[in-house]
Design brief:
Helix content: over 70%
Shape: globular
Radius of gyration: 23 Å
Largest sheet: 2 strands, antiparallel
Distance between the termini: 51 Å
Structural class: mainly alpha
Number of strands: 4
Number of helices: 22
Strand order of the largest sheet: 1-2
Strand content: under 5%
Amino acid sequence: MIELLAMTQSFQAYVPSLNLYQVAPFGLLLIGALGCLVADAISNKEGSRRVLPVISFAALISAFACFLLPLWPHNVTFFEGFLLADKFGVLGSMTIILAMLVMVVLGPETVRRRNLPSGEYYALLLFAAFGMTMLTMANELITAFICIEILSLSLYVLTGIDRRSARSTEAAFKYLILGAFASAFYVMGAGFLFGATGTTHLDVMTKVFLAGSRTFPGGVVESLNAIYIYVGFALIFVGLCFKLSLAPFHMWAPDVYEGAPISTSMVIATSSKVGAFALLYHVLLSLGFWDPFYESSGFILSFVAAASMLWGNLAALVQNNVKRMLAFSSVAHGGYLMVGFAALMSLTNSAPGVALEDLQNEICDSIMLYLFGYTVLNVLAFGIAHYLGKGGEGDMKGYRGLWRRSPVAATGMALAMLGLTGIPPTVGFIGKFYIFRHAVEQDLLGLAVIGVLASVVSAFYYLRLILTMFMMDEEQGATGLATTEGQVLPFGRTLVLGIASGMVFLFGVYPMIFLAMSRF
């Protein structure tokens, strides 16, 4: 009896103590995904197409509400230390869910237009949302890897879900092969960091980096192996650069964006980047406590930022396909965000009366605001292109005369292009302003100048699409656009795209509203 009691106590020591409320958002997304599969199995085709969007919408709204309630933890680790509820994680998760809600609203038309299997489509959307929201709060490298794989596998299938399209199949194959290489780089990098610090938990790593040494069993203290740390970060960084389509690891993006259904391209361009940038932020924040890394990491981050801004904008200049143009645009915007990360890792001393931690929080706020603005603007751009049908996904000449056929769609697309250019008073402008201001304050003037010049270059291809819609006559015999003169948008899509348009101005004028959503 005593032995049985001892065994029971030993077993209980290995049973994690979990607060169900803390994992409720992620559990709701998983339940929603499984519910979609079950509902699809027991319903006929038409029934599935009506019920599945409702289930998906309810799961996403419920998960979003969990982050707003007072019970949600603040700046603490949870789920046995594998997740961290900080500002970046909470705001990132909320941004992801908002973008996925738009996906669900656009879903019925996507499924109908391409005759997609609705059960798999909505279930994969929710599995991807689960992976992305978990990734934004990952506090452990292997947990982050599992989240990346859940997200990636969902996106691979969503990219090639239209099996009748050879282009979609080719895009999915390229995405899968290159994604596998990126995952391998990430795992090797995690292994090197584990070898250097003896842990994969980022908060524990932080303590090791602060001490500058590692304590082995038996009390033996040894200095950190700099080679392991640098190689580990380099491999993880390469893997994340692929996920973020940052130069020079971006060449998959144009082909995948063009070949995938436009709703999938929207997820790749927006939500998936939020999750990957959140992980990069947490990794850099942990490694930044080791002085040699903090003093040397700014160069590589600045190089990737400059390369992405220049190459993304220059390549976008010569694109005639709208989705390929938006793909190279995403490379450039990833570069703008990397300017913020370079500034974060270049903090040397605080301004008079301002603590270093406060400056770090300000830069974090700027990065999050830019990510949110970029997501809203791309949701609007891809949403309008989705409404326009196959012609909206193809050559820019299909947009000729759109102002006369659909003034609402033309206005929405023009607003998205102006925001992505960085024209005030849009959220795109205020995001860039804060990012470049921090770069100048941290003596990264050259990088800020490159960013401003790259933004000027971007005006040429963004404004070219606006001129095409408003100043050019419709091409004789042009087909493919799902609009005719006087046609109006369906109510559901009009509502979500109208809300996105309102957010472009609201958060451009009052950006602090978004940051206040996290209650930090």
